[in-house]
Amino acid sequence: MKNRPSNKAREQKSDTRIELNMVLDRTLIAVSPEAYAEFVVQLDTPSKHSERLSRLMNAPLPWKSD
To answer: Residue range 11-32: average pLDDT?
Structure first.
């Protein structure tokens, strides 16, 4: 009979995989306070009108058939 992991071993392996995925889903980018302040200003600034973006946002959805 082959060595098969116990249920507890399988659960621990699964828990480890979940924890690893949680770590891999996070990214830390370190920037200077000045760069961060500029980034926040850009996020808070309203975007300019863009005809190209407007066409894209109003294009028919390919996965919907009306």
So the answer is: 72
